[in-house]
């Protein structure tokens, strides 16, 4: 243990002085003048935190899922999903909900290269314009890029390797093309990834005589192949714009699993095929008054999953499960300025959507589920001197029905209001005090409803959903102080009624993993984040305060700490601390060195589980440099160098201990190359500086 902490300390100690390389994005060139726009690594806003993925080598060296695990305050767990600062996250991509969760979501995010993502928004205070079904918070994965006035092309590639019982490789390649002229703009992003990985998991049981028996010990060797295409085209009609998007993602994952335990031995082969398609049409109506906007959007998404598990010992098909999900959404959003106090704004909109979900087991339908939502919202924003106010409400009408192969589902037909309110006091520019309340709802995901096993099973382990789950109602309260986009301190509490959680039950040697509703759970979360410039240790506080600097431009240490406690009726629970350290240093030759360390304390409750190992504990190192006038970016990454990232949990009310370990210690490289190209046929506007914002907007609609 001492060696581990010595290695961590060495990674974060530096006496190097100077300024870090600026993170810049070239916008355009006009003769000899270069206009640049700085991109911040982290941007802390009143209602959200924005992480720049495209410019941060330590975040975009692997898959999107691996990059998300490194974000301070975000916990990803197989047993409890994804949470940020104590709030359950709903996952969006380019402003649209994915409507998938659990192992389907993990497979989707594992298959997408992180260098295909521009930035990540975590919206901790979603307003009335967001669906009430967003629960506590939203993570929005933004893959779009800005359309240039000429053909632009970027090639991204990466390779990573792990070495445990054998060497495993991971490769990804993608190409981004976009262009814009006076008539239309277009974008095409296509890529593939190949990923070999390993998972070692075990479930042990403590017997009455204090001896321990192995219920299940498995060794899984997995290969995942992912291909994706994201396309977009825009047409400009004077002030108006039409955006058309079509995305397709195909994932094929196979796994060979050897297992043994009390009373069994197995050699199994599984295959999971997932096809996801998403089409969107957006019409943006604009007016002479730039503050007045009217948007219409129609979205259709389809997600098909086919899962098979075969026993190689007995040459039999153990599981043959399929699911099909169709989702259609139509929404209208309108906003305009109002003469309210110093200045104001009104937003109003409506939404209609329907989700249908059908599952089959060996060709027989055992769940037919339909969810329809009709919603409308109204929100006002205003300013008075140093105070900002937001007051809104959203009304949603739900009609959820369905049948299993044996009985009808418990219907959910309700009409509810979901208010939200924010008061913010601005002490000075970029220094603010914020208080927020919002009521939200979380509908059970189709993964949690699915009665079929789409994961893995052996004679002692079973994974199953619960078709009778009911929605969860959240009351979210938050108070926060933020300064200069980086430093913050805050406290929030989320009161959840009818919370959907993961539970493990044991019957003799049979372990069942499923989902249930709990009447009420309160999640308390305290968090603090602060950058510490290294010049503070060499020049002292007085001299450091004299400098007017941006933390992105200097050598610094970023500290994050959070305390989270799950308060559950009739259960004695304990909280746990989360820590994240990130050090940025610019070495000679403008090589940027970044070290990150994540860990948590143990013995704290995570819903109905108690940790025996820290969540996602990992020390990661990366070195990056730009060449050829910033056209080529190359980075080397060394992740989980201490091999400490593992999971250990006890299930409350049971004598079992759950442990798992992925091959997380990896090394590799990533490169991004902006291919020099220019379309001479494109009609470039000679006066780019006076164009409206819509000319510089993203091609993919948000």
Distance between the termini: 47 Å
Instruction: Give me the Rg, rounded.
Output: 26 Å
Described by strand count, sense and barrel closure, the largest sheet is:
22 strands, antiparallel, barrel
Task: Identify low-pLDDT runs.
Answer: 13-37, 679-702
Strand composition percent: over 45%
For the residues shown, what is the average pLDDT? 85
Q: Give the count of helical stretches.
A: 5
Q: Rough shape?
A: globular
Number of strands: 37
**Overall SS class:** mainly beta
Helix content bin: under 10%
Keywords summarizing the entry:
mainly beta, 702 residues
Sequence-ordered SSE layout with sheet pairings:
Elements: H1 2-12, E1 24-30, E2 33-38, E3 42-44, E4 48-52, H2 64-69, E5 74-77, E6 81-84, E7 87-93, E8 96-97, H3 102-111, E9 119-123, E10 137-142, E11 152-163, E12 167-180, E13 184-206, E14 212-237, E15 240-261, E16 264-286, E17 293-311, E18 316-338, E19 343-361, E20 364-384, E21 387-404, E22 412-428, E23 431-442, H4 446-449, E24 461-463, E25 472-483, E26 487-507, E27 510-533, H5 535-544, E28 556-567, E29 576-587, E30 591-600, E31 605-606, E32 609-611, E33 618-627, E34 632-639, E35 647-651, E36 656-662, E37 666-675
Parallel strand pairs: 7-10, 24-27
Antiparallel strand pairs: 1-2, 3-4, 4-9, 5-6, 6-7, 7-8, 9-10, 11-12, 11-37, 12-13, 13-14, 13-36, 14-15, 15-16, 16-17, 17-18, 18-19, 19-20, 20-21, 21-22, 22-23, 23-25, 25-26, 26-27, 27-28, 28-29, 29-30, 30-33, 31-32, 32-35, 33-34, 34-37, 35-36
